[in-house]
């Protein structure tokens, strides 16, 4: 069932139509007429002959034809009745604006489900309830009651804003319009009871005129649809920037009380967005900040910045901001420096940052010569022009025109930082993205180049299917090690011993010392119970340890299931690998530094399964302990490849539906210059799977 | 020599006066006449009878009286001549605008020094050269050629902007004026050849109408004057916010090429500012962002925020932003919740964040009741009101008036976040600080409360006198340990042994194993030469180690000065304490995590000496390893007090002028649950001090 009738209907009826163009049932009629909608508009109002000058109808059944789309601007029980009528008539798209449904509790959710069922049976789709409506300024189908389209005059353009929240659909709209940027789509999906925000995004991103997609999400109701959106966006080279709010613990609680959104570990959202090439904005400011840069269609090849200003102080501030944000300062080769030297006055520096000095007052054409000269340098990826003050003597229209001409001639990306509005306006008119301060400009550029790089390496894909909740059963260490070994994790040589003789024979074969530990699913925290003996290198020590541990298990009142003998492994660093199933995103693997500070001083990274070795290697580079993988103080580098392979194996194990492993805890994974060996593990499986395996 | 003649002269002469009010020599005359200067203005121009309608004089000598201040708007050799004339006549204040002096090299610096000497002999002070001038809108003494006072109409007000750079004196001026904030002082000191930026700040901060001081610094020419400024500011409760540019390595290089500023380790600047209660802004945006909050005179007692919005999404975003920035969400007690419940519609939440919902459309008075109710709660320190959309039906003037009335009635701090300019304007008119987004509002509030807290605990003070450079001499480990022990650092029991017998006797007294190491100032990196033996617990091992080490020293071609025997100390963590003399700020002590990753994964904090135990304890809490001082996984907490005492002792040693210690490296300091023991140290002293000590 296509969503086209929502975005490009040929006819629209408004149930609850108001003659007052400032009421909820009146505003969509006003908008449809003002913003160029070409199709039929049918007000439904049993009490009036006309509504806002249009012929009004008493009911949907009275219409001369079945409308493609119906705006349901009534409340209460009228909503369900109208949905039923729409479905019966063959309407394709219904937008329910009223609140008071799923967001209020189970009864509201039940009604939503009923309406959805009714609609689907009839081939109809529903947006809402609790939707502010949809607005497509390309077709004039503005089926929305937002007041913002009066406050900020619409102009069709390359941006699409899609949001669950009504307010956050029009906030970016307002901020973009204030900057003169055209917005085509401005949609609020509300409760997502049928059509959800991600499904609508997947439709909108196919609009060939959409060049930038902005999303506001409070929940992720449909990761698969979001991944589909990302895949289409990648194909079309449309950047997606998304706010997923509730990113902090307190924010997440606030979001739950606002929308009843299911909480998910926030960094899984980060991982999912990154995989899909979606840039995650922290808030509304970040969502729109770099819009002009994206819309230029620039494809920066690197992050090397050149700064040009008539103020040395601006140069210093821009360089500070760039280095802080992670941009690099381009280094001009001698030939470019020579050329700049020939252009600039003797006391100006031909190096980057280029301080063209007050000479700009006497030579207004400096930008027309400096930009192309520096632009020819292959070491420069983009420019920041800084003009801190304005006033008589500065020929801003000329500077702006020269900069604009450089851009139009295929020059490299240029942005302006200027605190004076008049300077910004002059440059904006010439198509140069403008910012108030060096920090703003640099932050926007950094986001832009980082996002373009993310888009280049992204591999959009839906998360693995989430497993239904199940009671969990922890396996004992022996079975845990066997499972992860079978999946491909290198584990320390070990043996479950139910007799001292068996343990003796293990010790005989050992290349060095061994460890002896209690082994029982009922005793997962064996260290805390003193049931681990290290450094065993003699039969006497073994016998004593064996007896101690058997007695210890007995003291805990647990049946004796054997002791696990294990080679004592040496290495340089203890890491941990954990894996679990997120209820929304499926298998996730966490790799991190280990030891006693694993919780107190966390240093780890999360990956969504499936992932490959290159992805783990990249992820390991984001850890604080990354230098250890390059070698520190003459020590050999830790074996990152071995860590990566272990993590991949854990991810694979979590994806294996037969084993139905629900969580894995490899702690520690002992890493050396050549290898990574698991010496302890705890695997939890769905209890049903255990039962099944046990029965086999 | 007071600086009053610069800020409130009774008469001003302009040498190089121009009839054209848009020239450098013309603009100050225009400004003095336009902006209410009440004193005499004397244009000096030998070629004209009048300048801009004022009687012109051929020379300073022709004036009817000696002017308090002279603006020197000529260039080249005319500058020195004019300075000489001013000094001879008894002028008190000269402002040199021309560039081409100290910033161009040694010859320029020499000329600056000559002018300064001439001036001081005559009791005159000089601002500049390379100064855009000074502007005091309180007295109308606008002795500046900045074009910005035409671009942005001045209005006297509570802010002072003082900068070395001309551009960065007027950039904050322009940004503040665009927000309607009045600025009294706007000064650019240029090359600081005589009056420097800090000295001028110390004068300006005494102006009783100045409530906020903004500084832009590219160098710190006079930390003592800055500390004096900070002390007066603390006394007067005037917040100081400063940009010190060149804060990154690349930025610092750029700053040096711009001003020739001496590079100093950037975090010393952080430490110095923090000690003096000065908030360090990253750039111009941060410098002015929270200005309105400071100017309200609010004294927040905590960081607990309440959020009120008609949009649930805005609530979520504000909470996200607050938690991210480090503010806390206030938790209303039941009585307040009950009261809010009685005010709000049934479906709205009386909890924080308070979503007052679309009920605001039908009840425009909600703010007038919600703010006072929540404001009575002692758990709330400040409010963020969020209004994401505007439009007909929302009575913004009423909301703004209600919020303003709450503030005027002594309510707690309130700021507004609203993307629509019209909403912001309504609230700004009522005296509410306004921001475009939740992020902006929260960042400003966070800076404000953090800065007020910093001001409360600051103890302004000049840095210790920097020592003149001297050749350094490294002491051997034995002398190094003795020096730090004498200063109060607990060191491991040790003895310099020149015979095996001496070492034997040390081992006999040892409570456990000992370490034997080569001891010679000529072999500072003994470990790298294999000249350290650990785990010695027998006479045999000792004899063998002794012989090996003696042979090893010989192999290096160094004279044998003895071996250092040392108790082998056990502990939980190896820390390091380093100390050195910064050429500007004097003794600095660095405390950090140790081990082989000390450089690769740095985790340390810098303190300027002198400091006390409480300061070190605070500083240790900023380390990544801070949890170790609270105890991790049942392990006892590391002894932070012992670390603090060791750091204080190192700081004290650096301050001791007799010893003239120039650097200290305690590595490692072995820290346990009860104590911190230095087991190795390297002290460098000024060679002269050694010579002196040796002679004694």
Automatic annotation (TrEMBL), chains A, B:
Record-linked Pfam families: ATP-grasp_5 (PF13549), CoA_binding_2 (PF13380), Ligase_CoA_2 (PF19045), Succ_CoA_lig (PF13607)
User: Where is each CoA-binding domain found?
Assistant: 6-101
Keywords recorded for this protein, A-Z: Tricarboxylic acid cycle
GO term, biological process aspect, one: tricarboxylic acid cycle
InterPro entries found in the cross-reference section = ATP_grasp_subdomain_1, CoA-bd, Ligase_CoA_dom, NAD(P)-bd_dom_sf, Succ_CoA_lig_flav_dom, Succinyl-CoA_synth-like
Task: Give this protein's Gene Ontology molecular function annotations.
Answer: acetate-CoA ligase (ADP-forming) activity; ATP binding
Alphabetical list of PANTHER family matching this protein? BLL6376 PROTEIN, COA BINDING DOMAIN CONTAINING PROTEIN
The name of this protein is CoA-binding protein
The protein's organism comes out as: Acuticoccus sediminis
The upper taxonomy is: Bacteria, Pseudomonadati, Pseudomonadota, Alphaproteobacteria, Hyphomicrobiales
């Amino acid at each position: 069932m296509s969503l086209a009738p929502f975005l490009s209907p040929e006819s629209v009826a408004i149930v609850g139509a108001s003659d007052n163009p400032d009421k909820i049932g009146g505003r969509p009629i006003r908008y449809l007429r003002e913003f160029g909608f070409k199709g039929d508009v049918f007000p439904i109002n049993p009490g009036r002959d006309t509504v806002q000058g249009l012929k009004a109808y008493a009911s949907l059944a009275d219409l001369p034809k079945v409308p493609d789309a119906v705006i349901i601007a009534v409340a209460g029980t009228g909503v369900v009745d109208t949905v039923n009528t729409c479905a019966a008539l063959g309407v394709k798209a219904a937008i329910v604006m009223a609140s008071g449904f799923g967001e209020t509790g189970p009864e509201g959710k039940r009604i939503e489900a009923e309406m959805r069922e009714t609609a689907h049976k009839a081939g109809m789709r529903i947006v809402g309830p609790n939707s502010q409506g949809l607005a497509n300024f390309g077709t004039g189908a503005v089926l929305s009651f937002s007041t913002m389209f009066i406050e900020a005059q619409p102009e069709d353009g390359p941006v699409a804003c899609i949001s669950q929240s009504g307010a956050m659909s029009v906030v970016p709209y307002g901020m973009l319009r204030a900057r003169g940027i055209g917005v085509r789509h401005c949609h609020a999906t509300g409760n997502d009871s049928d059509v959800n925000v991600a499904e609508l995004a997947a439709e909108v991103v196919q609009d060939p005129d959409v060049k930038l997609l902005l999303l506001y999400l409070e929940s992720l109701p449909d990761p698969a649809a979001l991944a589909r959106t990302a895949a289409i966006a990648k194909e079309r080279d449309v950047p997606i920037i998304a706010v997923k709010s509730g990113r902090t613990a307190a924010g997440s609680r606030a979001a739950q009380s606002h929308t009843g959104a299911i909480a998910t570990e926030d960094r899984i959202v980060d991982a999912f967005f990154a995989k899909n090439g979606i840039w995650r904005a922290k808030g509304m400011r970040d969502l729109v900040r770099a819009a002009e840069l994206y819309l230029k269609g620039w494809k920066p090849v690197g992050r090397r910045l050149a700064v040009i200003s008539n103020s040395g102080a601006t140069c210093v501030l821009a360089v500070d901001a760039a280095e802080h944000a992670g941009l690099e300062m381009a280094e001009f080769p001698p030939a470019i420096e020579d050329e700049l030297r020939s252009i600039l006055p003797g006391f100006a520096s031909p190096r980057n940052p280029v301080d063209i000095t007050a000479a700009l007052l006497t030579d207004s054409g400096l930008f027309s010569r400096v930009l192309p000269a520096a632009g020819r340098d292959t070491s420069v990826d983009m420019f920041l022009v800084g003009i801190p003050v304005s006033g008589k003597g500065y020929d801003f229209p000329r500077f702006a025109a020269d900069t604009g001409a450089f851009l139009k001639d295929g020059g490299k990306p240029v942005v302006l930082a200027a605190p004076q509005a008049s300077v910004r306006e002059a440059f904006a008119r010439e198509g140069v993205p403008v910012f108030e301060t060096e920090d703003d400009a640099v932050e926007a550029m950094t986001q832009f180049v980082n996002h373009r790089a993310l888009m280049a390496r992204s591999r959009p894909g839906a998360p693995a299917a989430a497993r239904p909740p199940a009671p969990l059963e922890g396996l004992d260490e022996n079975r845990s090690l066997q499972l992860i070994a079978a999946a491909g994790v290198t584990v320390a040589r070990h043996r479950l011993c139910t007799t001292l003789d068996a343990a003796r024979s293990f010790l005989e074969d050992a290349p060095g010392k061994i460890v002896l530990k209690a082994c029982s699913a009922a005793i997962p925290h064996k260290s805390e119970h003193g049931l681990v003996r290290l450094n065993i290198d003699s039969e006497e020590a073994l016998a004593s340890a064996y007896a101690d541990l058997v007695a210890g298990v007995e003291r805990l009142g647990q049946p004796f299931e054997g002791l696990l003998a294990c080679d004592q492994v040496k290495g340089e660093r203890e890491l941990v690998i954990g894996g679990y199933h997120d209820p929304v995103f499926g298998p996730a693997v966490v790799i991190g530094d280990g030891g006693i500070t694993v919780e107190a001083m966390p240093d780890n990274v999360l990956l969504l399964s499936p992932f490959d070795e290159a992805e783990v290697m990249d992820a390991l580079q984001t850890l604080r302990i990354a230098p250890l993988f390059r070698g520190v103080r003459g020590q050999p580098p830790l074996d990152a490849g071995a860590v990566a392979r272990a993590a991949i194996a854990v991810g694979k194990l979590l994806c294996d539906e037969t084993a139905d492993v629900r969580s894995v805890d490899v702690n520690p994974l002992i890493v050396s210059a050549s290898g990574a060996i698991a010496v302890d593990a705890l695997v939890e499986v769905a209890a049903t799977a255990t039962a099944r395996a046990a029965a086999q």
